[in-house]
Amino acid sequence: MRTFALSLVLLASAAWADNTADEADIAFELGNRAYAKRDYEGALASYFLSYRLVPNRNVLFNIARCYEALDKPDEAYRYWNDLWVDPSLPDADKGDVKAALKRLAPKVALVTVTSTPPGAELYVDRKDLGSRGRTPQTIAVTPGAHTLLLELPGYQPGSAKVATARGKETKQAVELARIVGTVTLTGTPAGAVVRETADGPELGKVPATLSFPPGQRLLLVQAPGYLPQQVLVDVQANGEVSAKVALAEKPKPT
Question: How far apart are CA 212 and CA 186, in angstroms?
Fold first, then answer.
């Protein structure tokens, strides 16, 4: 291996001049010493400190190796996978990371979670256990039944139950419902067209029930032979607001 050698490459902190980088470098070196003594739990404590101070790919590698040495395949798989999905992972290192994932796959129960839309924060069983990353995401869990919890700003929380088995991969897709409020427009004339701008797409016709994300909306109601009318509505999440329109007829030419 090149970058991810067991000699545990020191952090490249030459370009950093602040105390945080120095502290991260020291923590990394202390982790190296503990690892060399097979004190893997002590090494993890130092590596986690180093990573919190200055995130570094080599630290993730060492964390994964420590968990493997402690015979904790679920945790080891998590950090190997974090390396695998890193778009900046050099091609020269992908073979080592892929081999590690393949080595651990028979020992873990895997769940690949996707969401529509992507980017949802993923939790397993309870939120207080911490996030497992953002979708799409492949995670290792203990074999058995689990509840996946997903959260994304602007969308209703989603969940799904999965049954997992060691050495198997379970795939689960979750569709998240957007948080919206309802606007009900009534009035005259019936059939007046509702848009957000004069040349925008038609949203509905009076009487209309429309759904929008929370926030203020300025609606434009138009009908042939009538003056247009603007309607300002304050859309509440999961709420309903009503508004009436009464378009005035255009003045007839004299």
Answer: 17
Beta strands in the chain (DSSP E): 109-116, 121-124, 137-141, 144-151, 158-164, 169-175, 181-188, 193-195, 204-205, 208-212, 215-222, 229-235, 240-246
| Assigned token pair, 198 | 């004069």
Q: What is the pLDDT along the chain (254 residues), one digit of tens a residue?
A: 333 443 344 444 444 446 788 899 999 999 999 999 999 999 999 999 999 999 889 899 999 999 999 999 999 998 999 899 888 888 888 999 999 999 999 999 999 999 999 999 999 999 998 899 899 999 999 999 999 999 999 999 999 999 999 999 999 999 999 999 999 999 999 999 999 999 999 999 999 999 999 999 999 999 999 999 999 999 999 999 999 999 999 988 77
Task: Give the Cα separation of 64 and 195 in Å (integer).
Answer: 55
C-beta of residue 165 within 8 angstroms of C-beta of residue 111: no
Show the tokens assigned to 223. 């009908």
* Tally of CB atoms within 10 A around 89: 17
What CA–CA distance (Å, rounded) separates 29 from 146? 38
pTM of the entire predicted model = 0.69
Angle CA(48)–CA(26)–CA(42) in degrees, nearest 5? 45
Mention every residue, 6+ apart, whose C-beta is less than 8 A from residue 47.
27, 28, 31, 59, 62, 63, 66
Helix-helix angle 91-104:57-69, to 10 degrees:
20
Cis amide bond preceding 189, omega within 30: yes
